[in-house]
Specification:
This protein is an alpha/beta fold and 297 residues long. It contains 11 helices and 10 strands. It has a single domain, classed as 3-Layer(aba) Sandwich (Rossmann fold), CATH 3.40.50.12370. The two termini are 17 Å apart.
Length: 297
């Protein structure tokens, strides 16, 4: 019988982009509230082919690579210290593929934070994206930084969570309540429904349907989904929002006023997501605030 890994520390991937630095600042803000160490991590490329060049060339390559990597970590740490002076920061240099290395680190991390995807949704489908690969394969929740730089420091804006009644939605609710409690922020729980799902397809019948009972049912489903966590975190102010809309549209609208949107994800490949739709991946590309994607590790 194996036991679950002890999850400890907030890992922030640093790649030299402004978005990654903001992700690290956000991660530091969360680490401070959660009383966790922040692990600033830069993934270095592998060594050059030793058959091309000499041992001296390889040593020089390694020296310059580590010096450049240290500068990137210095810049991120300086930005963090501008916000907080009391966060425990650990620096980590890893060699390998960025996505593979970060996924491996996620096995024992409490949260993994990365910069926004450097590709459009269409490019992610055909060309791939390290951010999307990490989100789809990580073993812990992944925070993808989105929005303006003021989102890099936790504040009193609401935490928004998408609720659809699934097991992964339950996981998102758990993390959303935890964040709201630790940050002292209100929580907005968003549940959506539409005629297509309620009637099993589009038909003439929807023109003559009384939607009141359907809406009452969806409100009851949302209340039931939140009940246990409301009892566990009575101090969290909760607003329930049941909308006759698609989840993607509703959550994107709520992201304009939120400090964080929390959703569950099945971890579909970008190509499959493009076919069947993926709320989490759309949020990663378009949300106006950071997005926390939760999967079962």
């Amino acid at each position: 019988m194996t036991s679950a890994p002890v999850r400890h520390g907030i890992v922030a991937g640093i790649d030299g982009s402004a978005s990654a630095v903001n992700a690290a600042r956000w991660a530091a803000s969360v680490a401070r509230r959660f009383d966790e160490p922040l692990r600033l991590t830069h993934i270095m490329p592998g060594h050059p082919d030793p058959s091309v060049g000499t041992v001296t060339d390889e040593a020089m390559f390694d020296h310059h690579l580590r010096a450049d990597s240290a500068k990137l970590l210095d810049e991120a740490e300086d930005a963090i210290r501008g916000d907080h002076t009391d966060v425990t920061i650990e620096r980590n240099l890893v060699t390998g593929s960025p996505a593979t290395a970060l996924v491996e680190l996620s096995r024992t991390a409490r949260i993994l934070a990365v910069g926004q995807a450097g590709t459009t949704e269409m490019q992610s489908v055909f060309l791939g994206s390290d951010t999307i690969r990490v989100v789809n394969r990580a073993h812990c929740p992944v925070a993808v930084f989105r929005g303006a730089s003021d989102h890099a420091v936790a504040d009193k804006r609401p935490i928004v969570v998408g609720v659809d009644g699934s097991k992964l939605s339950e996981l998102a609710i758990t993390h959303a309540f935890e964040f709201a409690a630790f940050l002292g922020a209100p929580l907005v729980a968003v549940h959506t429904w539409n005629e297509h799902a309620s009637l099993g397809g589009y038909s003439e019948a929807r023109r003559f349907t009384d939607w009141g009972p359907y809406e009452e049912h969806e409100n009851a489903l949302l209340a039931e989904s939140l009940a246990g966590m409301c009892d566990k975190y009575p101090e969290v102010e909760v607003t329930r929002s049941v909308q006759r809309s698609g989840p993607m549209k509703a959550l994107l609208e709520h992201s304009a006023e939120a400090q964080l949107v929390v959703v569950g994800s099945h971890g579909r490949s970008p190509f499959m997501a493009s076919i069947v739709g993926s709320t989490s991946q759309s949020l990663i590309h378009h949300a106006q605030c950071p997005v926390l994607v939760c999967r079962e590790g």
